Amino acid sequence: MNLAILFGGISYEHEISIVSAITLKKSLSKENPLFIFLDSKNNFYLISPENMVAVNFSNGDYKKEKKLELTNSGFQHKTFFGKEMFNNLKVVNLIHGGQGEDGTIISLLEFYKIKAISPNREASVLSFNKGLTKIFAESVGVKTLSYQIFNINGKRKLNIIEFPIIVKPLSLGSSIGVSVVTKLSDLDYAFDTAFEFEDNLIVEPFIKDVKEFNVAGAFTDKLVISNIEEPQKGEILDFDTKYMDFSRGQTLETIDISKDLEKQLFENFEKIYMPKFIGSLIRCDFFLINDEVYLNEINSIPGSLANYLFTDFPNLLNSIEIPQPKTASVSYKYIDKIQRAKG
Amino acid sequence: MNLAILFGGISYEHEISIVSAITLKKSLSKENPLFIFLDSKNNFYLISPENMVAVNFSNGDYKKEKKLELTNSGFQHKTFFGKEMFNNLKVVNLIHGGQGEDGTIISLLEFYKIKAISPNREASVLSFNKGLTKIFAESVGVKTLSYQIFNINGKRKLNIIEFPIIVKPLSLGSSIGVSVVTKLSDLDYAFDTAFEFEDNLIVEPFIKDVKEFNVAGAFTDKLVISNIEEPQKGEILDFDTKYMDFSRGQTLETIDISKDLEKQLFENFEKIYMPKFIGSLIRCDFFLINDEVYLNEINSIPGSLANYLFTDFPNLLNSIEIPQPKTASVSYKYIDKIQRAKG
Asked: A132 and A238 in one domain?
C-alpha cells in the first residue's frame, strides 16, 4: 500500500488544501507519501516532494510535473513509450470543501476501485449540508441549535426573533460567506453575502462567548479519539486565521476539563462517527451551553487532518480501517432465460 | 444538446437497466438518442441503435463497438488516427440500483462537467438508503411506516412485535433479498437472505392487501405529475415480474380515484420532489392506510423512467430542467499575499 495525499480540487478551499498537504508532508516525513494535485482544470499531477511549496501552485509550475489520469485501480502517466502505473494506493482525500467534502472525489475513487481514507459518499452528503447534519445528529441523539434554512428565491421571513444570529451558506466551510447579524436592518446584507456563494443558507442563534470544544477521531480496530481542543478565537474565525490554522503541525496538549465533560464530548463524538464515518478521520466542533453539549459542525476533512490533536498521528493514519464495499455481481440469467425460451 | 441514454453499470439491476434502455429506445424513436453502455469492468461503449438487443450484451458482442472514455465535458473514442469526441450531451442516467442510484454515476458526470437527467448526489443518497428516506420524508412532512434497522454484526432483537413484517436490504431495489415474515421462527432465514446482499437491513410492518398508488413526476418550468397507477400484484413483486415491468412502453390511463385522494398523492409527491429532486424524473410509491397517504419508497431512477405513466413522455424528457451548480472559483490570493510578505 502506497500512501498518496490527494489535494487541491475545485472549491473555495483550494489554497487551504495546498497548505494542508504541505503541513501533512512534515507530519508524515517517514511515510514518504505520494502527492497528487488536482488543479482547477480537473487535471491530476504527481508533485515531487521537493516541489511541495505553495508558490509552485500559484505560479503554475506544477504543470511541468507528471500528468496523471484516473484509470481502473489507480492513476497512470502516459508517455510516448508507454504507461507508468501508480496503483496499490491508499489515497488520503485532503480536498477541503467542494468536491472533496461533498462526495464527488470519493465517488470518483470508488468508481475506479481506489482505496481511500475519506468520508464515504453518504457521510459526505450528511456532513456537507448543514441542514442534513442537523437532521442526522438528531436522529442519533446529538443535540444541535435551532435553525432555519432559506433559499435565494424564497421569502426572507425569520422565525428566530432574537438577535444576534449567525448566517451561513448551507454547505461551505472555513467561514466563507458567514456573518453575525445583530439587528434586523443588517439582515439583507448578510443574506446577500451568503447567497453570493450558494443558493441556500442557514440561520442559527449566535451565542456570544459560547464555550467551544473540538474533538477529532478515527476508527482503526477501535474508535481512537483525539485530545480535546478549546479553540481560542474572536467572534468568528476569519479566513486568514483559519488559513493559518490549516498549517498547524505541533501536537496540542490535553486541556483541563472535568471528567464528566470529557465523557459527554466523547460520547457525542461516537454517536456521530459510528458507524457512518468509518474509513475517515473527522473533527466535530461542539458547543457547551448550560452544561449540555451541542454539535456545531462536522468537519469531515479537517485542516491537515487535525494531526496536531493526536499523539501519534502517522501511526493512526496508517491504521485507519477502510471498509470494503460489497460489490454486486452482474449476471445475464434473465436475458439468457428469455433467449432460451425464444428457442 | 444530444440526448444520450447511459445504462448497464455494476449492480444487481444491470440486466434490468438493459431492458429499460431498450424500452426507452422505442419511446424515444423520434429523438434518436445515443446509447452508452457501462459494462461490468467499468468500460463505456457506444452501442449502435441496431445493436440495442438484449442478447448483444449477454454474449459480449457489445465489445466490438466503439469504446469510450470519460473526459472533460464528454466522452471520447480514441483511434490510431486521433480522437472522436461526443460532447454537448444531455445524459439520461438509466443505471438502476447500485452505481446509478447511490450517487456514484452522477458524481462522475458532474466531475467531468457533463449535463445529466439524474437525481443529484444528495437526492441519491437520501433515496438509496431506506433509513435516510424515512428521516428525510418525516422532515418534509410525509408519513412513513415505523421501522427498525439491523446490522449484520448486531443483535437480532425486534421492537416490532406484530407479524407479518417485511425484511429488506437497506438500499437495494427490485425486491432483491426481500422477504415477508409471518412468524418469529422464520426471521433468521429472512435476515440471512437480506444480509447476503448487504450488511444492513430494514424491517417494517407488512400490511396485507394494502392499497398502493404510484406517482411519477419531474420539474420542467413547473412540476409535471404523471397519471396515477394502482399496481396489481401478488404479495411481493418478484424479480421476474419486476423485470417484465421495466419493459413497459404503453401509456396507462388515469385510474378512477377520488379528487381528495388524488390531491393527497400529488401533495405528498411534491413535498418529496421539491426542490431536492429537481433535475430528475422519479416515481414515489405510496400506501393508503386508514385514508392517509404513507410513502413506501422513492424510485429515484424508475424502470424505463415510468414513461408509461406520462401522456407525452418524449416532450417531458426534453423539457426537464437541469440545474447548473454554482462553481467555486479557485484563486491564489492568500498564497500570493504570503509570498509578497516574504519579499
From this structure: yes
Q: pLDDT tens digits, chain A, 343 residues: what are they?
A: 899 999 999 988 899 999 999 999 999 999 999 999 999 999 999 999 999 999 999 999 999 999 999 999 999 999 888 999 999 999 999 999 899 999 999 999 999 999 999 999 999 999 999 999 999 999 999 999 999 999 998 899 998 778 999 999 999 876 789 999 999 999 999 999 999 988 999 999 999 899 999 999 999 999 999 999 998 765 455 555 655 666 676 666 667 899 999 999 999 999 999 999 999 999 999 999 999 999 999 999 999 999 999 999 999 999 998 998 777 778 888 788 777 776 6
| Domain housing A242 | 124-141+209-319
Distance CA B289, CA A343 (A): 46
CA A241 to chain centre: 18
**What CATH code is carried by the domain that includes residue A9?**
3.40.50.20
Model ipTM over 0.85: yes
Residues B69 and B172 in one domain: no
Is A136 an interface residue toward B (CB < 8 Å)?
A: yes
Testing the interface with A: which of B18, B22, B39, B58 to mutate, by most A Cβ within 10 A? B58
Same domain assignment for residues B23 and B159: no
Based on the fold, state whether residues A191 and A262 are members of the same structural domain: no
Q: What is the CATH number of the domain that holds B275?
A: 3.30.470.20
Is the Cβ pair A334, B108 closer than 8 Å? Answer: no
Q: Do A326 and B132 touch (CB under 8 A)?
A: no
What's the CATH number where A155 sits? 3.30.1490.20
**A112 and B239 in contact by Cβ < 8 A?**
no
B153 reaches A (C-beta below 8 A): no
SS3 A255: coil
- Residue type for position B57: F
Residues in chain A with CB shorter than 8 Å from the CB of B129 are 122
Find the length of chain A.
343
d(C-alpha B309, C-alpha A134), whole Å: 36
A134 and A232 co-located in one domain: yes
A58 and A110 Cβ atoms separated by less than 8 Å: no
Q: What is d(CA B55, CA A134) in angstroms, rounded to the nearest whole number?
A: 48
Burial of residue B158, with CB atoms counted within 10 A of its CB: 0-12 exposed, 13-18 middle, 19 or more buried: middle
Q: Which of A147, A186, A181 is nearest to A164 (CA)?
A: A181
**Residues A231, A188: one domain?**
no
A54·B98 Cβ contact <8 A: no
Q: Is residue B261 part of a domain?
A: yes
Phi and psi dihedrals of A85, rounded to 5? -100, 140
Cα(A142)–Cα(A152) distance, integer angstroms: 29
Amino acid A159 reads: N
Per the structure, the count of domains in chain B is 3
What does the alpha-carbon distance between residue A139 and residue A143 come to, in Å, rounded to a whole number? 10
Residues A310 and A239 in one domain: yes
**pTM, rounded to two decimals:** 0.92
**Residue A287 contacts B, CB cutoff 8 Å:** no
Q: Is B231 on the interface with A (CB under 8 A)?
A: no
Q: Which long-range contacts (CB under 8 A, 24 or more apart) does B252-256 make?
A: B252/B227, B252/B308, B252/B309, B253/B227, B254/B227, B254/B228, B255/B227, B255/B228, B255/B229, B255/B230
Q: What are phi and psi of B75, to 5 degrees?
A: -110, 150
